[in-house]
Amino acid sequence: MINHSRFTLFSVKGGLGIALALFSLLMVKLTWFTDKAMYDVQCQASAFYLSKQPTEEIQHGDMLLHLVEQDGRLSLTYYSAFDDNVREYAVFEGELLELHTGSITYDYSMNMIDYQFSEVSQLNDYLLHELNLPSVKIGQSFPQSIQVLDADFERHFLVLKFSPSNQLWACNLLY
Amino acid sequence: MQIGSCWFDRQNKQLIDQSKDISWPLNDQEYWVLEQLAAHRGQVVSIQQLKSPNMHRTNMIKIVEALIQFLGKEHASLLEYIPNQGVILYKNATSQPSRLLVSPYGPMSYRQYLFVIILVIAGCVYAYSGLSTTSYIKADYSKWIMSKQGGLTELLVYAADDEQYKLNEKIDVIAKHIKSCDAVIWQSITLALSSDKLSFSLVMKRQTDATWLYHNVKLSRAYLEQQWLSAEWLKEVQICD
């Protein structure tokens, strides 16, 4: 039967239209996710440190990471508390260099802008690992990639992976 | 009467394609349909009017279809079937720019063709710019672990290098320790090792209706030989319940 005036779902052009619509939806979703104007993320961890002294017990403390990303600018603030009276912190800022949409990985150029370390600093040692640095100095520029491994915006939950150190943080999305 | 490149020879009841020099001797029903259309050229002829007394509707549509085919691609647009209304034989071939989405076989103008090509290229460039450096988020190692109480937990590992064969052995030891837990409340435990193997981070998580329950653990050691894995430590970091 002749039917020249209907745009059927199973026609070649119908399929093309549906494929185009799906592709556009996927791109919009990806763009929305990666273009989210602001992330305000807080992550808390139990930290354990095995010192060089074999007789010493495993030291146990708490760490907090506050991450804020807005319009390509990233701020990382680390807090640590190992001993009762010792509170340490370090603040880093960075700019987005590249965003890999497919793997949801953000490449930044970072700088340390402020810190407070104790004489024997666990936070300093931790940051050397996490940020893959030979030493921590103010004004020192270094690359850092952050990949979103898992995200559930409804439940305000994110899992991030720092590269090249390969460190994970499960976090609470505040905003 | 001239219809596209065909001549409708009423006298001999045939349709002659002058460009191909072929003729189609029309039977009574075919002649009736074409005669009706030619007589009302430029107007929609209803299906009722097109059917001769003994002609079935399906036959009539088949005849129209055959006529369109005989007119050839170039002049096919002269004859159009309009569902539930009838058939029209146009006086002149009409160009219909809106036909891109009207018919699966409809012609496409250069402008539409160019638009589709530009759209495809732009889509490819956009996708390539984002996907060119992708790495899969898949873990390097994954294993389901059953605790003594029968609960299942997935152990996922992200390695910093490609020494998978060395990693497997270490992960098996960790998995064995977790297996010995009486109960594990977590749906998954994700472990990431640093490239110097001196530090690692653990993420344990469990989904509830309202939220995700999770716990981060960081461990750093001064040198590789330092032992840290024990049943007590697994309890302390809440891997074992």
Fold topology:
The complex is a heterodimer of chains A (175) and B (241).
Chain A (H helix, E strand, L loop, with lengths): L11 H23 L3 E13 L8 E12 L2 E9 L6 E13 L4 E12 L5 H9 L10 E12 L4 E7 L3 E7 L2
Antiparallel strand pairs in A: 1-2, 1-8, 2-3, 3-4, 4-5, 5-6, 6-7, 7-8
Chain B lengths: L1 E2 L2 E4 L4 E4 L4 E4 L2 H12 L4 E3 H4 L6 H15 L7 E4 L3 E4 L20 H22 L9 E6 L5 E7 L5 H16 L8 E6 L5 E9 L4 E10 L9 H6 L5
Parallel strand pairs in B: 9-10
Antiparallel strand pairs in B: 1-2, 2-3, 3-4, 5-7, 6-7, 8-9, 10-11, 11-12
Structure at a glance:
Chain A contains two helices and eight strands.
Please explain how this structure is put together.
The complex is a heterodimer of chains A (175) and B (241). With 175 residues, chain A is α+β, with helices and mostly antiparallel strands. Chain A has one domain. Helix content of chain A is 18%, strand content 49%. Chain A is built from two helices and eight strands. Chain A has an eight-stranded antiparallel beta barrel. In chain A, strand 1 (38-50) and strand 2 form a beta hairpin. Chain A is elongated, with a radius of gyration of 23 Å. Residues 1-7 of chain A have low confidence and may be disordered. A five-stranded mixed β-sheet of chain B has the order 8-9-10-11-12, covered by helices on one side. A four-stranded antiparallel β-sheet of chain B has the order 1-2-3-4, with no helix packed on it. Chain B has a three-stranded antiparallel β-sheet with strand order 5-7-6. The mean pLDDT of chain B is 82. Helix content of chain B is 31%, strand content 26%. Chain B folds into two domains: 2-93, Winged helix-like DNA-binding domain superfamily/Winged helix DNA-binding domain (Arc Repressor Mutant, subunit A, Orthogonal Bundle), CATH 1.10.10.10; 141-236. Chain B is built from six helices and twelve strands. Chain B has 241 residues and is of the alpha+beta class. Chain B has helices at 28-39, 47-50, 57-71, 110-131, 164-179, 231-236; strands at residues 2-3, 6-9, 14-17, 22-25, 44-46, 79-82, 86-89, 141-146, 152-158, 188-193, 199-207, 212-221. The chains are: A alpha+beta (175), B alpha+beta (241). Chains A and B meet through helix 1, strand 1, helix 2, strand 6 and strand 7 of A and helix 3, strand 6, helix 4, strand 10 and strand 11 of B.
